[in-house]
Amino acid sequence: MSPPEAAGAWVGLLSLAALAACVLDKGRAVRGLTRVPERTLLLLALAGGSPGLLLGMLAVRHKTRKAAFLLPLAGVLAVQAALLWLVLR
To answer: pTM value?
Structure first.
């Protein structure tokens, strides 16, 4: 497996995990159960699962208005965008 393929597989796997965690957290929030920690969601995004987390947030309308979560997520996305730009240039 080439490095780009490995990176794509990594991002895909972590995106699925982040999407699942986001959907799970939304369901648990609606039912008043113990939640997935925000730290876990942010770490999944930081590790490469940000596409899945963003998709989950939009799909189930979860954490889309919470500034205390969106600001760190924006930082993660900015760092990832900068790293991607450095790799592709």
So the answer is: 0.91
